[in-house]
Amino acid sequence: MKALRFYAPEDVRLEDVPEPECGPDEIKLRVRNCSTCGTDVKIFHNGHQNLTPPRTIGHEIAGEVVEVGADVNATYGSDWQVGDRAQVIAAVPCGECYECRKGWMAVCQNQTSVGYQYDGGFAEYMIVPRQVLKVDGLNRIPDNVGYDEASAAEPFACAINAQELLGIEPGDTVVVFGAGPIGCMHIRIARGVHECGPVYLVDVNADRLKMSADAVQPDETIDASEVDVVERVMELTGGRGADVVITATAANVTQEQAIAMAARNGRISFFGGLPKTNPTITCDSNVVHYRQLHIHGANGSAPEHNKRALEYISSGQVPVKDLITRHIPLDDVLSAFDIVKNGEAIKVTVEP
Ligand SMILES: [Zn+2]
Ligand SMILES: [Zn+2]
């Protein structure tokens, strides 16, 4: 079968490999959709400390069950059958550490990831590892949800995890930095689930801003390469600032701007990680202190967030279909990375 294998930074090959074999406590999937995200592009160019090469990458996965190991259903108390449609979690918690037992699976200290320690979804077939099945990380796709939509449940789950911490209330003003797919999902969740008030979408790339704004219709877009974004948000909020700010970018300055534009009792999510080589920002601590700001991190998602994402897609509360703007065969997977890198599509999905 064909698979996209990572060997080293800038050395990623689409090659023929043997079809993987399914162990007694594993499930084999025919991958139908594996979507791409900024992390794939980062891995392509820089690798990742947790990724052991050679490795089939791709972590936003939906597929059809083609083989169920003999012990699977007895071991995990599940009822998987050949022909079932399933979505796979990407961040895999251990289920046993202090954090997991507390129910904080997104910050499991032994977290592993599909596409890093286990072969991922840019391939015709993949094995769902026992570590995923053990934490109930293989999710049934509702009948009215397509494989392409289901593959978006993973990034969507990360956004649900972040927003859960923000306590968004009806009517809250929300600013989202980053007009990528995840920024779009943040807007849809804030509105569809939390019934927020006005939403302002910020980016420095005018084309990407327009493309995403056409899809999710923020109340206003702000091109931060043209205007002072803090000043503009203050204007739009009558000088009060934003109740909620989400930085879905890797740009340090957006975190500083988020603090500067937050309203009293404002809640901030540092959703996007910063470059490893430059992870610091300047923070006026007195602003945080006197304005009583709440600054949250966000690290991936827990299995439960993936299930909820599929429910929100199925119920229509948070549509994702229209955010998947490109479908690409596995043979052209490398071009998908360029499209993501150049921001030419909202979400690109690969169909092996
Ligand atoms: Zn991703
Ligand atoms: Zn754990």
TrEMBL record:
Database matches in InterPro entries: ADH-like_C, ADH-like_N, ADH_Zn_CS, ER, GroES-like_sf, NAD(P)-bd_dom_sf, Zn_alcohol_dh
Q: Where is the signal peptide?
A: none
Please give the cofactor(s) recorded in the UniProt entry for this protein: Zn(2+)
Asked if the record carries the keyword Oxidoreductase, the reply is: yes
Give the SMART domains listed for this entry: PKS_ER (SM00829)
Q: Which Pfam families match?
A: ADH_N, ADH_zinc_N
Where is each Enoyl reductase (ER) domain found? 7-350
Keywords on record? Metal-binding, Oxidoreductase, Zinc
Spell out the PROSITE patterns in the cross-references. ADH_ZINC
Q: Which PANTHER family match?
A: L-THREONINE 3-DEHYDROGENASE (PTHR43401)
Q: Which family does it belong to?
A: Belongs to the zinc-containing alcohol dehydrogenase family.
What's this protein's name?
Answer: Zinc-dependent dehydrogenase
What phylogenetic lineage does the species belong to?
Bacteria, Bacillati, Actinomycetota, Actinomycetes, Propionibacteriales
